[in-house]
Amino acid sequence: MTRTTIAHFINPFLPITQNWMYHQLRFNTECRHIVLCQTLENTGMFPGIAAFPAFKRNNLFARASMVLARARAQYFTGYYLQVIKQERPQVLHGHFSWESWRNFGLIKKTGLPLVTTFYGLDVNKLARLPQWQRRYPMLFRRGEIFIVEGPHMAQALRAIGCPEKKIRVVPIGVDIEKISAAVVEKNRSVMKVMFVGLERGKKGPLYAAKAYALVAQKHKNLELHVIGDGPYCAPVKKLLSGAGVLDRCVFHGYIPLESYYAVLGHMDIVMAPSVTTENGDTEGGAPVVVIEAQAAGLPVVGTTHCDIPSIVVHNKTGLLCAERDIDALAENLELLVSDPERMEKFGNAARIRAREHFSIQRQVKDINEIYGSLV
C-alpha cells in the first residue's frame, strides 16, 4: 500500500528547542514525510527525515536571500516547486502560520490541501499586527485545517477569525517511553527543581528565579537546574547571586535531547511560571516541558497561563497560581518541597495522565485522521 506523502514547511530544520516537531514526523510511520526548509540546523540530531533545503549552506548569499524573502513575506517558489513535482505530496503542512504564509504563492500554484499548526506566537503577538490582520483572513480561507494544542488556543484562533469548523485540537505528544526510561530513583536528601526558558520573557525566568530564591533560603537542600540560554541568563544569575543561592544552581545551557531527558529524569519538580509579556507574546498553548514533566512523573509548579491548566490539573498533578504572583509561586513550591508524600502522589497522577492523553502515538493518530480526511 502506497503511503500518503506529506510536505512539511519547517524552517530552519531544526532548532534544538523544537525537537517535539521532529517527533511528529519520526513516529508517524503511516505517512511519508518530506521537509521544505530554507536551511538546515543540527542535522546529526534529527536523522531519518528527507529534508530539502533551498540553501545548502547558510552563507552570505543564503542570508541575503532569506532577508529579502522575509521582507516580501514570501519565499521564492522555484526550488520548492521542483521538489513537489519530484516527490508528489498529497498534503502540505505548515508548522507555524508564518511558514504557511511565506509559502502562500507555492500553495496556490500546487492546489494541494493545506494544514497549518499554530504554536503560540502566531496566534497572539502576530495577530496584533496590521499586516497579519490582513493576511490571516486569506490564510483561513485557503487552508483546510488549523491545528492547535488546547482549548485556550482554539478560542484564541476563533477570536482572530478562523472558522470553528476548520479548527482541530491536538495536544502535543511526547516520547513517554524514552522519558520514563531516563527516570531514576530519587534521593530526597537533595531536592532538584528544573526550569527551562532563558530565551523568552513569556517563560517567566525572573519569576522562577525569585520564587526559587525565597524557598531555597529556607531549604538548604534545594537545587535549581536551568536548561537553555539567552538574554535572561545574566539577569537570572545576578538575582540568584544577590539572594545568596547561586552556588546551588546549575546552568546546563543548550544540551542534546538525550542529555535533557537524563537531567529531567533526576529532577523532583519542574517550574513553569509562564506569563503574557508586554508585547503580547504568550505560550499560546502550553510549554512542552510541562508535558514532558508529567511524562516523567514530576509535579509542575506553574501558572494558569494559556493551556497550562489543560495539561496540569491543579492540586492533582501540580500546583498553579496566577501569572506574576511570586509569593504564590514560592508558596506552591514550598508545599511540595516540604511534603515529599504530596510530591510523590502528584507525580504518580501526572504519569498516569500523561500516558492517557499526551503520548506521541496518540498525537500522530489524531494528525493522521486529519490527513486522511483531506486525501
Kindly describe this structure.
This protein is an alpha/beta fold. It folds into two domains: 4-173 and 359-374, Rossmann fold (3-Layer(aba) Sandwich); 176-357, 3-Layer(aba) Sandwich (Rossmann fold), CATH 3.40.50. Helices cover 43% and strands 17% of the residues. The protein is built from 16 helices and 13 strands. It has helices spanning 19-26, 60-72, 78-87, 97-102, 104-110, 130-142, 151-159, 176-181, 205-216, 233-242, 257-265, 288-295, 308-311, 326-337, 340-357, 360-374, and strands at residues 4-9, 31-37, 50-53, 91-95, 114-117, 145-148, 167-169, 191-196, 222-227, 249-253, 269-272, 300-303, 318-321. Strands 3-2-1-4-5-6-7 form a seven-stranded parallel beta sheet, sandwiched between helices. α9 runs parallel beside α10 (233-242), α9 crosses α14 (326-337) and α12 packs across α15. It is globular, with a radius of gyration of 21 Å. The mean pLDDT is 94.
Q: Keyphrases for this structure?
A:
375 residues, alpha/beta, Rossmann fold, 2 domains
